[in-house]
């Protein structure tokens, strides 16, 4: 026993004296190859791989992780480069050495006099190493720095992070967890756009983000009111066969509450299925309807098939939404085929499907067939039409000139307790105004407002044009002040409509008052406003004021319409010399503007107030 103890003590003493000698030899080896003048590289500089082997060997054999003082004392005179740092990190890529790699990474950018900033590639290499070793907090902190990385010399953005992270993926032992961590880090930093780009980038290369990552993006997008992006994330999630959990559904329900669409979606699902469904079904239906409404019919149908395979929607809902998609495309033949399949599989027809067919026939102008379907729906099947059913029929009737039938349908809608949509109301009043029955249109609006309808700017524009058509200036002015009374701030389109229609009514003084209001709001008069004012001045024989408006118009680099110019030139019986001067001004203005635009013909009803 005594001999064994003596041997152990002798070995310990030998190792104790050997360690300083080993360190001295390592320093001698490194100093032999170190570049004494980094600005003038020596021809005897050894290869980067050889130097990195010396550094990594020292770090691997030093326990525990060396301090910054030790690293400075050992490698302080060494000229570090980006390739050298990256090579050392790769030599320390095994999980037991990850903390040493992190210590060397931080020391090299802070204490080395020859090296001040890491490359983005070094950041990405170390992130891979840390994630592989399970040091996620350190990896997340480095990712945050990498996301905000900018080139130290130029201050410009670094090369794309996604591509750099992907290119360093094979250098370390592969692990896809890092890609999820990047998505979650971007979401935490509220960079949801970058998180979604990263999710798509890596998914295209075979790595699908986890449910946790998708939920992180959704939560931040909804909290940040990035509603469109939230729907894109939800759609991308289902397309990549990552199916929602309770957290996902709660987030999407919250989004629909913010948008104000939840009640409508719940009603749609209940009309199709006949009873209330789980919130997950409501969210899925809302997504499909959104895709179809954007015109991406095939994508919506494909997503429905995937949902049915996963059994996250009911059969009757899938059939109904596919019929809706075909009807939106105008493909009634496929829609009727799908209806037969729906019936053969034991699914009952519902009010939503009937409404889809009624709307498709109304779009084609086939009001007779739409009326037959309405009759079948109510009398034979025993279903109740709802607001959208009536909206389709009313608009269809007014579009085809069947105003009496449209008004009858409106009366039935009112009796059933529904109000028309804003677009339906505007179509009804527009048709009445075109037939010069403006008072009837005004009475209709009054009745709807008393029942809770909220008119929009387009509603008032239709009526203002209607009163201008019958040259009733008092009605035009009353509608303007009614808008202000109801809290609707009249914008440039409304002011333009009021001025133009007052000019039609030959009320120049009132038109100029509203022109002053427009200028008080720092709104510039448009070409159509000047045309109307010039024409009105000519009709009143106010030659001087007409020429003032014409001069003001040309100073603002606007060109009068051909009608307004000819009215100014001919109807006032101007002397020949004045006529020639006016024509020269017109020709000069026209010549200057042809480089940018052509003479625009008189605007149509839909855009004339905005030109």
UniProtKB/TrEMBL annotation:
Residues 584-611 are annotated as: Disordered. PPR repeats lie at residues 210-244, 245-279, 315-349, 386-420, 421-455, 456-490, 526-560. The keyword Ligase does not apply. The keyword Repeat applies. Keywords: Repeat, Transit peptide. Belongs to the PPR family. P subfamily. This is Pentatricopeptide repeat-containing protein, mitochondrial. It comes from Ananas comosus.
